[in-house]
Structures are given as structure tokens and as C-alpha cells.
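re: that chain from earlier
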Amino acid sequence: MLTSNDLERFIAAEMIAATLVWPGVPTPTVLDAAAALRVAPAQIIKSVLFMADGEPVLVVASGLAKISSKLLADYLGLARRRVRVALGEKVTAVTGYIPGSVPPFGHMQPLTTVLEDEVLTLMGDIYGGGGDLDALLRLSLAELRRVVGEKTAVLVE
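^ sequence. v structure.
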């Protein structure tokens, strides 16, 4: 299993302009993270793993967004029944991280990553999973886009 230490090594090796922060309490949910950092929930991003026709696809979305598997299926050109949110052990097996700590990059394997369109409106520092339940990743939207690529889609109804 990967941890915040692995994520820090990945950040250093890839020369990513990002840092990890430890707010001193576990932050497994968007609301927990926002409260711990004293920022708006909109500044928190989440990385949600889907299995699309058996292949992993990571969606990075604004923290409170409800990602539509139907819209993701449409974006990927698949039938809706072929796209499902990955749960628990599958998330860890694919990303290396436990649910609630998954960062947008630095996984056990390269993942197809799609940025949900609302993320593109975020300003200032944004925060996401930091590899452990008590760690958060801080970076800019521009750096996130540079690292994960430019695939974007409207995935919230």
C-alpha cells in the first residue's frame, strides 16, 4: 500500500509544484478537510476511481460535486452499465491508496484521468487526497492540469 511518503517521493521525482500538509486531524471527507484547513469546501478536490468496461478511470472533481456515472459513460462512449464507481479494496488495489486519501496522481499505475469541468473554475490553492487520511495535497489548478493532462468533461448533472 502507498502512503504520503510515496506521494512525497513522486512529487519530488516529477518536480511537481505541490506540497503535503498535515492539519492534525483525519480528513477522509471533503467537509472534514475543509473544516480542518478552514477553507471553503469548493477548494477541496476529490479523486474518484471508476471502472469503465473493466479499465480504471480516475475523475478529479470539485469536492461537493456529485459525479454522474451516466455522463462519464457518455464521455467514454460506453453503455452506462459498463461504468461503476470502484469501492474499497478495488480503489486500493488500483491506486495503492486507501479510500479517502487518494491523490490525483502518484498511483501504483498510470491512470486515465478526467478533470470534471467545475474544477476548471477553482482559484488559488486547491487541496486533495494526500496519501494518508491525515495528509492533504496542496497545489494550484495550473499545476494539477500540467500533471494529469487536459482531458476535461462535464460530469455533474
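The chain has a mean pLDDT of 96.
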